[in-house]
């Protein structure tokens, strides 16, 4: 049965004219009403209607790039690398593609909304960056949306995100678990046994995988797990979490941070407490963001090839590079040992 504009209006409890305004973007509509209409569009899988239905399987020159926070260097680097591949030869008829960066703010609802809008625009490709939210209902909704996008001819690349089976998507996933394990093994090899951990948000796959790697290394060495504090992937979170770790266990000799930005906040808290890095407490991060080598002391971290992964995602989106075998490629991280880690104090 064909879904009509009137069906969407009834589901969203608005007039057909309001639905049309939201979908065409030619008249201001209250944010709450817009969200309600887009949710109804997604639930009913209403994409195109009337004469435009013949174009449903065709794609445009639009490519969507979804990020959690464009101000975060992790996402900015990948988004820039993806977009750098959209010009020049190799695209359809040798032309360029228009990249639209969609900033979700970490909201699962916004993630689905942007995918709905990109589906309506018949996007040629969608690149989704960063870790996934581990919520069964959202995971099911995402899988359904990705499946419908693929069926409509959109190429879907997950960059730095775990695979989503049976959706036709291509996953370039970082080995966060392996990187987390190697980072903690480095600290254990230096002699640390009291290692605090500042983790990211509990609902993110990136958080879980990095923490699992940390715990795997401790277990293999027969070392009991120390304190763990969760928080956002930002500097303030690292500052507050490091203070909490020191309160819980003043004898901590090393801190592993969820990412480099969090590590900077942790360093600030340690210095405020009168502790030296690494003489009193070693600090390690993750990602190897550009500033990591310039801070004092330079930060020990795990380098993820963010630019390389983003560029590869862009080439696959443009059809310039073949998809990996089985549609999944695991991208390893590299341990970068610098001045922020040393043997524990005597």
Automatic annotation (TrEMBL):
One of its GO terms (molecular function) is transcription cis-regulatory region binding. Pfam families: LacI, Peripla_BP_3. It comes from the Bacteria. Residues 3-57 form the HTH lacI-type domain. InterPro entries: HTH_LacI (IPR000843), LacI/GalR-like_sensor (IPR046335), Lambda_DNA-bd_dom_sf (IPR010982), Peripla_BP_I (IPR028082). The keyword DNA-binding applies. The keyword DNA-binding applies. Gene3D superfamilies: 3.40.50.2300, lambda repressor-like DNA-binding domains. Keywords: DNA-binding, Transcription, Transcription regulation. Signal peptide: none annotated. PROSITE patterns: HTH_LACI_1, HTH_LACI_2. PANTHER family: LACI-RELATED TRANSCRIPTIONAL REPRESSOR, LACTOSE OPERON REPRESSOR. This is LacI family transcriptional regulator.
